[in-house]
Amino acid sequence: MKWNKKKVTNLFFIIGLAAVVVMLFTFDVSFAELWEHICKAGWWLVPILGIWLVIYAMNAWAWGMITNNVKEKGQHIGAWRMLKLTISGYALNYSTPVAGLGGEPYRIMELSKDIGNQRATSSVLSYVMTHILAHFMFWIAGIVIFVVMVLTGLAECNVAIGILTAVTALVIGGLVYLFFRGYNGGIAMRLAKCVLFVPGLKRWGLRLIARHHKALERVDNQIAMLHAQDKRTLYGGISVEFLSRFVQSLEILFMMMLFDAGSSSVIILYLQSVFILTVATIMSNLLGFLPMQLGGQEGGFVLGISLLGLSPALGIFICIICRVREIAWIVIGLILMKLKNKN
Questions:
Q1: CA distance 18 to 12
Q2: What is the pLDDT of residue 15?
Q3: With contact defined as beta carbons under 8 Å apart, do 112 and 32 qualify?
Q4: Pick from 72, 209, 252, 317: CA 20 to 30 A from residue 139's CA?
């Protein structure tokens, strides 16, 4: 049976919808407790949900900067189109196993309708690199904030945590270096060659490289060209993505203020929110093969909150409300998948 793009899109939609149903019935709390936490959040759910529209708009802005850096007649992608694909792509990333298994192929497939397969692939790969690099930079900033809080007595630290923090910082710093190397030399061919090391996929990987060698090289050349000829666009995209993580920290700040936890200073609460998000996102990405990073994100929230000496009940509240927000935006993303494309 031949699968066209419409059938693949419908398959992604069905997988995402099924994941939402499964998630609704696999909460670690009863529906009565879930409703109690939602009622506690009350009207604060509006800014908690709304802040993600700002975050996704920033993501779409960064991606649009990269995609539209090549000025070709009739191939400029509009802001609404970028925002729609951004929200739908992240919805699929949240609801499918392995980060990017659904979201990135879906974005490439949809964007190829506007600018062709090769440019769509280089656009999505460049944006993914930018998104991940911004995460690494944010984690380094979070580690610096943690060190400052430890020195000022606002966070707890022992020898084991200190060693783990230092090792984490070194690893992340090395990854930042490797990503900039990837911008210089491209990453499509390197990713294809990684398949050769997966048991059972070596022959398939060799056929893939042989069949699409020139196409992979063109994608890498486009990525390298962006770094070499348009650094302003590249670093602009990285900056927007980096700042979006600090906007995301406001979500945790809102919940800490609602829970009346920690310091009375909004600045200190915000710095604590940045650190909590840092720990949560590191752990969730380490367990990125699980849908919605189930378990990893919760563990990150609990660990970050415990290191700050805050109430464990706050961690449970943040975990539940974040899951509610994620499900809400997954549903929105799936609905956007069904809307007629307009550029």
A1: 10
A2: 61
A3: no
A4: 317
Q: Which two tokens stand for residue 11?
A: 């398959």
Q: What amino acid occupies position 104?
A: E
The whole-angstrom separation of Cα 250 and Cα 267 is 11
pLDDT at res. 3: 46
Token code pair at residue 5 = 């793009």
Residue 300 near residue 285 (C-beta atoms within 8 A):
no
Helix residue ranges per DSSP H, the chain:
5-24, 31-41, 45-67, 79-95, 103-115, 117-151, 159-185, 188-194, 202-229, 231-259, 266-286, 296-307, 312-337
pTM of this structure: 0.81
Three-state SS letters, 121-177: HHHHHHHHHHHHHHHHHHHHHHHHHHHHHHHCCCCCCCHHHHHHHHHHHHHHHHHHH
What pLDDT, on a 0 to 100 scale, did the predictor assign at position 185?
Answer: 65
Is there a contact between 164 and 143 (Cβ–Cβ < 8 Å)? no
Interatomic CA distance for residues 48 and 241, integer angstroms: 19
Residue 270: what are its φ and ψ, rounded to 5°? -70, -45
**What does R_g of the chain's alpha carbons equal in angstroms?**
21
Contacts of 57 (CB under 8 A, 6+ apart): 83
Instruction: Give the model confidence (pLDDT) of 260-317 as tens digits.
Output: 655 668 888 999 999 999 998 888 777 654 544 455 677 778 888 888 888 777 877 8
Q: How high is the pLDDT of residue 247? A: 96
pLDDT < 50 regions, the chain: 1-3, 72-73, 99-100, 289, 291-293, 343
Q: Which residues contact 243 (CB under 8 A, 6 or more apart)?
A: 58
C-beta of residue 327 within 8 angstroms of C-beta of residue 65: no
Residue 234's pLDDT is 80
Six token digits for residue 342 = 């307009």
Structure tokens at 37: 């936490």
Cα–Cα dist 263/251, whole Å: 17
> Distance between CA 115 and CA 73 in Å, rounded?
10
Amino acid at 120: A
